[in-house]
Amino acid sequence: MARSRFLLSACLVVSLLPGLGMANDRYQARPPVMVSPDLAAPWLLQLGVRSQPAYQAQRPVRQPVVYQRRAVYQAPMPVRETYPAAPQAFRPQALHPREAAPLRPAIEQAAAMPARRPTAIAPQFLPQVVHYDTKEKPGTLVIDTNNRFLYLVMDNGMARRYGVGVGKPGFEWAGEHRVTRKAEWPEWIPPQEMITREAAKGHYLPAKMEGGPENPLGARALYLGSTLYRIHGTNAPWTIGYGVSSGCIRMRNEDVTDLYGRVPVGTKVIVM
Q1: Per the database record, which ranges form the L,D-TPase catalytic domain (predicted)?
Q2: d(CA 252, CA 234)
Q3: I need a labelling partner for 100 at 20 to 30 A (CA). Which of 10, 24, 38, 206 fits?
């Protein structure tokens, strides 16, 4: 009887062992418990714990790409001054047997030259025929010192215009005179005031200079009234259009030669 009980207990233990092993294997690794934050929030609040909102990954903001061109230094191109041809050509007569000799500016002109010598005369200062509204009679000379023009009045509202050089600051003047004398290749006798003034600057002028290509009065001269002022040529044509003289009206030699043949003694001259 006892033996039968023992065998029955052994069989029972043997039958229970696989079930216990399977139970241990089943609960050896507990599966994770997934609870929604919205459902767990009331319970967590009772425990004094605040639920954290679920993490949501933010989409990265794509920044625009800016491309910059690399700066490359380029040296400026040299500027070359050019002037168109004269609107109306003048054929001057032969000026002087020594006109081919090199020209040298006079001392009193060199002292007041522009800072930069032009390579060519500006086109507006070349001789040309233009419309000119004036009440003056044909044959009158009108000198516009502000704009550096000399007008020889013609018929029908026209005038022959030349570029001129005028008095430098402090030597400007205006008035009305007549051409009292004309001279070809005039000699130059500097006035005593000019000799004294230039000597104070260290420039010593000659008492007299014979006519010729080196003479600052140039090829022709038209004397105005009883004054020391003249309309004359120049040995420094690049000064036309500037205020550099001591009051005289200077022209290019070819222009004053052309004017000389058109203007008689007694011609009215208005300087303004």
Answers
A1: 139-272
A2: 6
A3: 206
Paired tokens of 245: 């003289």
In terms of residues, how long is the chain? 272
Summarize the confidence of residues 69-87 as an average pLDDT: 46
More confident of the two residues 234 and 188 = 234
**d(Cα 53, Cα 224) in Å, to the nearest integer?**
107
Residue carrying structure tokens 């089943």? 26
- Kindly list the structural domains of the chain, giving each domain's residue range(s) and its CATH number in brackets, ordered by start: 107-271 (2.40.440.10)
- Would you say 137 and 229 are in contact if contact means Cβ atoms under 8 Å apart? no
Rounded distance, CA 91 to CA 98, Å? 18
Q: Which residue type is seen at 184?
A: E
Q: Is the pLDDT of residue 73 over 70?
A: no
Which positions are catalytic? 232, 248
- DSSP codes, the chain: -HHHHHHHHHHHHHHHHHHHHHHHHHTSSPPPP---HHHHHHHHHHTT-PPPPPP-PPPPPPPPP---PPP---PPPPP----PPPSS---PPP--TTTTSPP---HHHHTT--SS--SS--GGGS-EEEE---SSPTT-EEEETTTTEEEEE-STTEEEEEE-BEEPTT----EEEEEEEEEES--B---HHHHHHHHHTT----S-B-SSTTSTT-SEEEEETTSS-EEE--S-GGGTTSEEESS-EE--HHHHHHHHTT--TT-EEEE-
